[in-house]
Each structure stands twice: as structure tokens, then as C-alpha cells.
Amino acid sequence: MSSADINVKVGVNTSSSLLQTAAAMAFGLAILFAVGFAPMSAAHNAAHDTRHTLAFPCH
Amino acid sequence: MLFSRIVYASLLVGLLSALVLSAVQQWQVAPIIFAAEAYEGAEYTPTLAAEEADGHSHEHGHHDHSHGEEWAPADGAERLFYSLMSNLFAGIGFSLVLMAIMSQLQLRGMINLTPAKGILWGFAGFVAVFAAPAIGLPPEIPGIEAPPVEYRQIWWLLTVALTGAGIAVLIFASIRYKVAGLALMLLPHIIGAPMISGAEFKHPDPVVVAELTSLHHEFITISAVANLLFWLVIGLASSWAVSRWIVKHDVVET
Q: Looking at the whole model, is its pTM more than 0.90?
């Protein structure tokens, strides 16, 4: 029995799960923006070596 | 709650992936960055940038470089600390996104994660986030000449999004539509990455330019290795967390 079958039987609320996974994804993207894209000089300098290592566009 | 389980798991997955990334970064990648910075001219090193703020008048070079006189961590322990923290946040950020997608698909029964599939997910992440954008915008060392950062960021985002979508179509769509997945992956390269005309390095000394070019090639190879390991850990650990805890827990609980 796959997890989908189980979900159907026990009635996992799919719209709530969609909302929650979307929120987790948005949270992750916000963190990535701060680390990799935020244009402020202090943010750039703090994350400088990480941006270079991950090949985010830098400078 | 699904959201909080994804967030808790991302702390662990982020930490694991950041440990691997930091090890390769500090051992192999950072020395190349430091070597390239040494050629950039003294005014660009973060420690001297702090001294400039003390009021030394000072000419900036030809770089359109944003180090300026803003705060920067001092070389050594402080810089290491900020790099490790940035690696941790990058690991958490990527694992949040990956586990959010995995959890949703696993809940719907569209995937059934195993460790082997987790490694494939990690490899897909490496292709979408590192390899595909690197085709048009190779990983850069400090001091390299490049088009305005905003243009590169837009192309990078476009490439990552279209490659990710293309991989999803290739894997999940029916056979008739798979060619559309390939088209999505090719599109950013047909559009073309922003490029500069002229030399990559503007240092006047040809010996230094040769040295920087060799450092750059070395950097591309080792950053590819660092990113591949980073993504394999994220894929493997994320698949484990989603299949063993995040989604499984949901089914039992409900």
C-alpha cells in the first residue's frame, strides 16, 4: 500500500499540505536570497566566500 | 505539523550538507579565493577596507567592485565564522526547498523515496543549481571581469528555474511531453548568458594574468566537486528525512 493510498483512507488534507509545503519552500527561498542575492554590501561581504563557492553571481 | 517537521529536518540536513561543503571549501576552495584576492590590489581586501573607513583618502581602481568601505569580516577567524554560517544557511535554504517539493510529491504518492532516489534528487539539484548556470556563467574568482551582477543574477535565476522545471518534466511527464523538458533546459542557453567582450583579467602583468587564469580553471573544477558533494548529501539526507519522518509521521498521525 503506497502512502497515497493511506492518505486517501485516512484523509490527509491535501490543500493544507500544499499550503504548508509552499510555506516551507518560500522560507527556504527567502534564506537563499539573503545568503546568495541580497545586494547590501555587508550581506555580500559576510557571505562572500560562500557565494563564490556555490557560484552565485558575485561582485 | 508538516511545515514544522520540514523546518526541523532542514536544520539537520542543512548542518550535514554544510559540514561537507565547509570542509571542501576551507581545504580547497578558499585558498584559491585568497590567492586571487592577493592579485586584486590591496584596496580590495576586507581588512584594509576597514582601515579605509578610518579616513585614509584613497583611489579606487578600475573595478566595479562593491567591497568599498562597508563592513566586512576581518580575515582569519571572523571571516571563517561568517563563511561557515553562510554555508549553514545555504544548506538549510536548499534543503527546505528540496524537502518541500519531495514531501508534497511523496504525500501524493507520485514518488516513493529511497536512499538511491535521494542521491538522484541530489544530482538533479547539482545539475539545476550548479552545472546548468555554470555552462553560461562559470564559477568566478575575485578580480575577474564580468557583466553587471544584476544581469548575471537574472540569467542565473532563469536558468536554475527552467532547468529544474525541465528535469521535472523529463522525469514525471508522459513520454510525448519529455521533449518539452529538454526544450526548457536548453532555452536559457539559446537566450545566452550575459557576457563581456575582452579579457577576463585586466591585470597589466601577463604573468599574473596567466596565474589568475590557471587559478580560475582550478577553481571551476574544485567548486564543481564541492557542489556535487554538497548536493549529494542534501539529496540523500532529505530523502531519508522525508520518507522516514516528515511524511511517514503525517500518515500515522492523521
A: no
Cell 565547509 found at: B22
Mean pLDDT of the region A28-46? 96
| Domain of B115, in residue numbers | 2-58+70-143+206-253
B24-39 tens-digit pLDDT: 999 999 999 999 999 9
Does a structural domain hold residue B201? Answer: no
Instruction: Please give the distance of CA B135 from its chain centroid, rounded to a whole number.
Output: 14
Please, where are the H alpha helices in B46-148?
46-52, 77-107, 115-126, 132-136
Asked whether residue B64 is assigned to any structural domain, the reply reads no
Say how many residues make up chain B.
Answer: 254
B214 touches chain A (CB under 8 A): no
- Report CA dihedral (B24, B15, B162, A25) to the nearest 10 degrees: -170
Chain B residue numbers with beta carbons less than 8 Å from the beta carbon of A53 are 21, 25, 29-30, 87, 223, 226-227
Contact list in A for residue B90 (CB cut-off 8 A) is 31-32, 35-36, 50, 54
